[in-house]
Amino acid sequence: MHESLQSHALIARYDDIWLLGGARTPFADYSSVLSGVSPTDLGIHAARALFERLGVPAADVGTVVAGNVAQSSFDAFYLPRHIGLYSGVPLGVPALLVHRLCGTGFETISNAADQIALGRAKLALCVGAESMSRNPVAAFTHRSGFRMGQVEFKDFLWEATLDTASNTRMGETAENLARRYEITREEADRFAALSFARAQSSWDDGYYQDEIAAVTSQHWPLEGYQPRGIALPRKVERFDRDEHVRASPFEVLQKLRPAFGKDGVQTGGNSSAIVDGAAAVLVASGEYVRAHGLKPLARVLASAVVGVPPEVMGIGPAPAIRALLGSLGIDQNSVARFEINEAFAAQYIAVERELGLDRERVNVHGGAIAIGHPLAASGVRLTTAAARALDRAKGEFAIASACAGGGQGVAILLQHAT
């Protein structure tokens, strides 16, 4: 099945394109400290922090590519444009919104790389931003009024997890993979416990300090336009740590009830955390890097995206990674680090088994089960995480990848910046 899927993969190869670095907000639990902040403002904060951290002028940016899956503010249409304007990008620089569900963050990077390869820009700002807390309670059929007994308001965050083509919820697709790959509840919980332990250890060791841009209440004036900013809840002066990362041993996870049927393996504890947050990276041409004497974080070698059956959407990273490596003739054993989004424990384990991955090379600092999965931000976070882990491992190649609802797999191949 997967070989036939790979034949339809969209693959792009890049000769001289570089990832300069990344920054992100800490991820906040659903309905917690960031629940009052729009995704636009989360994205602005991440972008402004990135420019300050790297010392790269926002004035040099030639294109803005931003991603946001669920529109969770009334001005969400303007998200990419406002992120550019309020982070200091010149007024004349255009902005683009991209959307590939859970693969959206990756799409911001691959789209930017495409624009740079075409000579349309030398430096791109890529941002993924998501507020899961602000997903609306919505109605789509009442524009012309209400009919008796037919008032329909639904929770968009919950209803959007249903793929109406296959009539499966995202969690049910993980259960389908659990049955297909014979994954047990114990295996799912032990993997989740590992994700939490790795993330907590990395936080305690100070690893994430170089990635996080702490959030405070802020005010951003823009001459000639309305100001924007962030107002944290009263008595919260600073938010500076991923909120969902906590001690979660196997024994505790085992006590949770299955979320998708009484015999299922997935629970709230071994599924990706529902969180709010944003992440940003700068992608540049080799010409820009050399002209400014910059030391990039990694080289962007290629990207791939492929479709898979919607009812087993979580297997998407497997054919995407195979297509990516096959297009460049690179052996999987040459990849020192993988970052694969942990949408669900069973979903990750299925990919691991399909590819024969060594778990000691994957998500070594924790994954989305512990850290969280703010949809559009995840691909940006994962790509930055892969580059940082590769640099620490002193390997040559790294891959960041994710599945996407509806049945897709996305992957980006990085090379160590030597």
Would you kindly provide a written description of the structure presented here, covering whatever features stand out?
It is a single chain. This protein is of the alpha+beta class. It has a domain of 172 residues: Thiolase/Chalcone synthase (Peroxisomal Thiolase, Chain A, domain 1, 3-Layer(aba) Sandwich). It is built from 13 helices and 17 strands. The model has no long low-confidence stretch (mean pLDDT 96).
**Tally of separate helices:** 13
First-residue to last-residue Cα separation = 38 Å
Point out poorly predicted stretches. Answer: none
Question: What percent strand?
Answer: 15-25%
* Shape summary: globular
Write down the CATH topology of one domain. Peroxisomal Thiolase, Chain A, domain 1
- Strand tally, please? 17
Radius of gyration over all CA atoms, rounded? 20 Å
CATH superfamily of one domain, by name, is: Thiolase/Chalcone synthase
- Derived from helix and strand composition plus strand pairing, the structural class reads alpha+beta
The top level CATH class name of one domain: Alpha Beta
Residue-averaged pLDDT = 96
Order of helices and strands: HEEEHEHEHEEEHEEHHEEHEHEHEHHHEE
What would you say the CATH architecture of one domain is?
Answer: 3-Layer(aba) Sandwich
The major beta sheet can be summarized as: 11 strands, mixed
